[in-house]
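Summarise this fold before class:
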Amino acid sequence: MILHRPIVAENNFRTNNELLIFAIDSLISSIDLDALEVVKLSITTEPEFLSDIILSRFAEYAQGISIDEYSPVSLQIKVDNLLFSYPKAYRERWFKQRKIARLLEFDSTVELIDENIQQFERRFTFSDSFPANQLDIVQEDSYLQAEIDDYAFSYILWEPVLISVGSILITILFFTGR
């Protein structure tokens, strides 16, 4: 099952950590935990730091469920893919504030083994944008860091210069032609 949950960040944007925790919370809330009392929990992730975050978020969601490695009920959470990027920097209109687009893809597989085996895959795709001058706040103390395309930033910085030079050239050509 593929779920796309866009988060629009016009005035109220999320930090990268908040975005990651939101994806993990969405994954854990999709698991039917009501009938479980004791579970053997196995978390496989790449990168490693995700296991601790998933474990702490699971403990918060699964209050009243004990984790025991000898339990006959097994819950396996595997993060297959974690992709974080800033695909583009842009302006909505001329002379408007620069914005940076952000993308988080989080693919996971959950397997719940009790009397029968239940396995499902979840794919969460988050995309939003935020003002470029807020980049330091968005990335502050973040697990997720990504590079911003230098080409996109250089194009945005040169845009006012190109408009000014073009306007001057048109004015010069207009008055020299008279």
User: Anything to note?
Assistant: Residues 2-146 form a domain with the Double Stranded RNA Binding Domain fold (CATH 3.30.160). The beta strands are 2-4, 38-44, 66-67, 74-85, 89-91, 98-113, 117-131.
